[in-house]
């Protein structure tokens, strides 16, 4: 009962954000980068629902359009991380031997850095920009997926149907692709949605520090960063809405991920 | 305590509510076990045997709806309080689980597991625990006490683990011992040992034993009475002799008919030509698993020589650990020979590259022991069957056509093509496994205990199918099994493997009627026979190891 409700709450939150992001141009008359010179740092009004920021840009419009970048980039970078991680994990887990040992040691070294520090380091090397930001987040997430998949592959490759496939005369790569990989993604299916929330936080965090999306583009981390000076002056509308948006997204993905995990454990224990 | 029966189940009815309806697991079951008696509870999976055992030790699912009584020494188990139940389990009735090695706690030595139980239930101290542990192990027939006490479960053989399991069950001196398929996965000699032990515990110590088994022949060896359970109902019950000799129920007859009879007269031998080049040639083949990561090396095959000709079926028999599975896996190219010459259909097994591996897979196919485990849960039956055709480069239509044809031949129709493994029964899954092995028309078919995971009546059907296939003279077949009666019933030649060596080889008549090696003799003596007696011959095994 309860896990079901939580999963659905998570799904509804995520879906709501996604719909708002897609429908952004319909929900506001202002473009996200349009400047209203007559209204700078103004509070919420009928013209500007959530007021304007220091450049005279509409906060409501920027909030909606930022969801496209934050949500989209988070999902894409996690998808890329899963694909690359699964490929590395499947290959090393299936082949084993020195290749496995070497790759695993390299992954362990990268994982021994605190994630955000590592992300910062990569971001400094790559420089700012939306695409680079996605690459940073994906890179940092690859090792954990690789290890997850590798562990499962090592179990699955010993199973009867893998032996059966190997004796059927299809190539090793085909055995890996047809049988081993699809049956080794159970943990990943659960962890990936959970990680989208983490990826959004990482994206926003890097942007807040100035390593992400350049200024005129709408992005929650940048919006919060730009609004820091407003907080002391009592102009809450430039920072609180993007902050809340982040909270809602992370919460949504966490609930969704935990719900999926719950369902998976039940399915296995049956 | 009283003169009444130890266990008296009266009109037990169990219903388990499930998502879409109710499972009627037991329907008015009556069953009695007297002290000193071994009662066999026989039937196939899903028949309610395990449910009945759970009821006796008070471990029915919490949502079960029950009627009737389970009286143990006059007290109803179904209405016991938590405290009474805890005392009842262990002191009253104790359970020995299937797959003993898996049911033992893997991280604790036997000594500690016994001590835990003796301290908790019998409040014994240091010296008491020590003496009682040794007494219990001696009672279950273990002689090298120090080694077993210090061993972890994975260091024990299957038979030894089962003995330890029984010793643990005996630790609280229970009046009734429930043995749930205690011989699953044990070969014939060990099965005989364990059954003999159960018999002795009843006869000499006056305990009641409820032996749960799908193997009516094994139960017949030691039981005083047999109860046949089908779909939650007792269909037949009576003294063993009476049930075996004059069964009244059709289902009992079906179970009995499915038991391969090792004493049935052999069919006339048709002398098939062996002039053609053999499909399998092994000359002094060794397989040595190298030691690594702290695991000790293992010499699985020691100098095996063998020829298998087209049109013949060769049975390979031996106990678990004898090397027969290694031999089968080597024929498929899954294990490489470490020394000697080995070839299948002209392909050298010791130097397999990509091309020769592909050629080999076209000439050898295997039918696996666990039929469901050999099918990818995410792929349909059609995918599974057509997979060996992929390297042949056929069109989709051709593949589907061949899959349908071969599936029909195994007795399934094309509706099964779109099913997934979880929608198949064990027997159906094994038919799919056979279809898959046949589809690329191999020169050699290897069967690895193809029926040991199946119910007896299904076993008989699958064996009939394999027997049909054996009639095809273009193909050679290797049948790996520890079931002598099955091997005898349709193999042409038999090879007996013991500790990695071939100790005896010959035609079925030669090996079964005049075995030369002591090990073969002990195997034959231990084979379960309907109406046979349990042969207690502990010296046979020592002789063969020398």
Could you characterize what this model shows?
The complex is a heterodimer of chains A (270) and B (546). Chain A has helices spanning 2-22, 24-27, 59-95, 97-111, 115-126, 130-156, 160-167, 172-180, 186-208, 220-232, 240-269. With 270 residues, chain A is mostly helical. Chain A has one domain (2-269): MetI-like (MetI-like fold). In chain A, helix 3 packs parallel to helix 11 and helix 7 (160-167) packs antiparallel against helix 8 (172-180). The radius of gyration of chain A is 22 Å and the shape is elongated. Chain A starts with a helix and ends with a helix. Helix content of chain B is 37%, strand content 24%. In chain B, strand 1 and strand 2 (21-33) form a beta hairpin. Chain B has two domains: 7-99 and 175-257, 3-Layer(aba) Sandwich (Rossmann fold); 280-527, P-loop containing nucleotide triphosphate hydrolases (Rossmann fold, 3-Layer(aba) Sandwich), CATH 3.40.50. In chain B, helix 7 (158-170) runs parallel beside helix 8 and helix 15 packs across helix 16. Chain B starts with 6 loop residues before the first strand and ends with a helix. At the A-B interface, helix 7 and helix 8 of A face helix 13 and strand 16 of B.
Short description:
The complex is a heterodimer of chains A (270) and B (546). Chain A has 270 residues and is mostly helical.
CATH class of chain A: Mainly Alpha
Global Rg of chain B: 25 Å
Detail the poorly predicted runs of chain A. none
Q: How helix-rich are the residues of chain A, as a percent range?
A: over 70%
Which term fits the overall shape of chain B?
A: globular
Q: How would a textbook summarize the main sheet of chain B?
A: 6 strands, mixed
Shape of chain A: elongated
- Record field, number of beta strands of chain A: 0
Please write the string of helix (H) and strand (E) elements of chain A.
HHHHHHHHHHH
Q: Provide the residue-averaged pLDDT of chain B.
A: 83
Determine the fraction of residues in helical runs of chain B and give it as a percent range: 25-40%
CATH topology category name of chain A: MetI-like fold
CATH architecture of the largest domain in chain B: 3-Layer(aba) Sandwich
Give the name of the CATH superfamily of the largest domain in chain B. P-loop containing nucleotide triphosphate hydrolases
């Amino acid at each position: 009962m309860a896990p079901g409700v939580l999963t659905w709450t998570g799904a509804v939150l995520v879906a709501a954000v996604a719909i708002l992001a897609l429908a952004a141009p319909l929900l506001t008359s202002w473009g996200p980068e349009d400047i209203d010179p007559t209204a700078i740092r103004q509070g919420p009004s009928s013209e500007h629902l959530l007021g304007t920021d220091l450049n005279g840009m509409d906060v409501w419009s920027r909030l909606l359009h930022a969801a496209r970048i934050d949500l989209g980039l988070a999902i894409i970078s996690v998808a890329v991380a899963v694909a690359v991680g699964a490929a590395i994990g499947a290959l090393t887990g299936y082949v084993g031997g020195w290749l496995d040992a070497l790759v695993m040691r390299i992954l362990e070294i990268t994982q021994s850095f605190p994630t955000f520090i590592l992300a910062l380091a990569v971001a400094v090397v790559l420089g700012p920009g939306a695409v680079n930001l996605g690459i940073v987040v994906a890179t940092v997430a690859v090792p954990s997926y690789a290890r997850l998949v590798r562990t499962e592959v090592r179990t699955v490759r010993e199973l009867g149907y893998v032996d059966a496939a190997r004796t059927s005369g299809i190539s090793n790569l085909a055995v890996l692709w047809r049988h081993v990989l699809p049956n080794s993604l159970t943990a990943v299916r659960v962890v990936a949605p959970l990680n989208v929330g983490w990826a959004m936080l990482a994206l926003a965090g890097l942007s807040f520090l100035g390593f992400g999306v350049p200024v005129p583009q709408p992005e929650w981390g940048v919006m919060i960063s730009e609004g820091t000076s407003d907080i002391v002056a009592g102009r809450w509308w430039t920072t609180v809405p993007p902050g809340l948006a982040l909270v809602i997204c992370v919460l949504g993905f966490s609930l969704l991920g935990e719900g999926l995990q719950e369902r998976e454990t039940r399915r296995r224990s049956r | 305590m009283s003169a009444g029966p130890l266990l008296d189940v009266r009109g037990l009815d169990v219903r388990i509510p499930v998502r879409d309806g109710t499972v009627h697991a037991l329907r008015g079951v009556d069953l009695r076990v007297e002290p000193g008696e071994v009662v066999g509870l026989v039937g196939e999976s899903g028949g309610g045997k395990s449910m009945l055992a759970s009821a006796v030790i008070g471990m029915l699912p919490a949502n079960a709806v029950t009627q009737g009584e389970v009286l143990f020494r006059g007290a109803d188990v179904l209405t016991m309080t938590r405290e009474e139940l805890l005392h009842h389990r262990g002191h009253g009735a104790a359970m020995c689980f299937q797959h003993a090695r898996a049911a033992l706690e893997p991280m604790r030595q036997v000594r500690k597991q016994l001590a835990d139980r003796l301290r908790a239930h019998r409040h014994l101290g240091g010296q008491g625990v020590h003496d009682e542990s040794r007494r219990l192990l001696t009672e279950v027939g273990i002689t090298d006490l120090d080694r077993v006490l210090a061993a972890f479960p994975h260091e024990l053989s299957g038979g030894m683990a089962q003995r330890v399991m029984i010793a643990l069950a005996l630790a609280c001196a229970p009046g009734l011992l429930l043995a749930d398929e205690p011989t699953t996965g044990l070969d014939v000699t060990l099965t005989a040992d364990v059954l003999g032990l159960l018999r002795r515990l009843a006869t000499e110590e006056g305990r009641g034993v409820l032996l749960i088994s799908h193997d009516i022949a094994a139960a017949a060896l030691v039981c005083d009475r047999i109860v046949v359970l089908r779909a939650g109902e007792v269909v037949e019950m009576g003294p063993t002799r009476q049930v075996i000799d004059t069964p009244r129920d059709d289902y009992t007859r079906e179970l009995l008919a499915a038991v391969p009879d090792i004493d049935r007269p052999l069919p006339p031998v048709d002398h098939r030509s062996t002039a053609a080049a053999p499909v399998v040639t092994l000359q002094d083949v060794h397989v040595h698993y190298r030691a690594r990561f702290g695991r000790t090396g293992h010499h699985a095959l020691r100098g095996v020589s063998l020829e298998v000709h087209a049109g013949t079926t060769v049975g390979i028999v031996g106990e678990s650990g004898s090397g027969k599975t290694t031999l089968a896996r080597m024929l498929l190219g899954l294990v490489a020979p470490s020394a000697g010459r080995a070839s299948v259909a002209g392909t050298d097994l010791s130097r397999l590259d990509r091309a020769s591996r592909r050629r080999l897979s076209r000439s050898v196919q295997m039918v696996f022991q666990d039929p469901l485990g050999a099918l990818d849960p995410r792929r349909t039956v059609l995918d599974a069957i057509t997979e060996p055709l992929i390297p042949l480069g056929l069109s989709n239509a051709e593949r589907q056509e061949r899959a349908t044809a071969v599936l029909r031949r195994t007795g399934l129709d094309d509706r099964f093509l779109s099913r997934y493994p979880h929608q198949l029964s064990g027997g159906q899954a094994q038919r799919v496994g056979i279809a898959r092995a046949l589809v690329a028309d191999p020169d050699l078919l290897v069967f690895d205990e193809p029926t040991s995971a199946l119910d007896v009546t299904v076993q008989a059907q699958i064996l009939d199918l394999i027997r049909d296939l054996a009639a095809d003279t273009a193909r050679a077949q290797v049948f790996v099994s520890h079931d002598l009666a099955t091997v005898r019933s349709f193999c042409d030649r038999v090879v007996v493997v013991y500790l990695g060596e071939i100790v005896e080889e010959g035609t079925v008549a030669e090996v079964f009627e005049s075995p030369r090696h002591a090990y073969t003799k002990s195997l034959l003596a231990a084979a379960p026979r309907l109406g046979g007696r349990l042969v207690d011959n502990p010296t046979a095994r020592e002789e063969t190891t020398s």
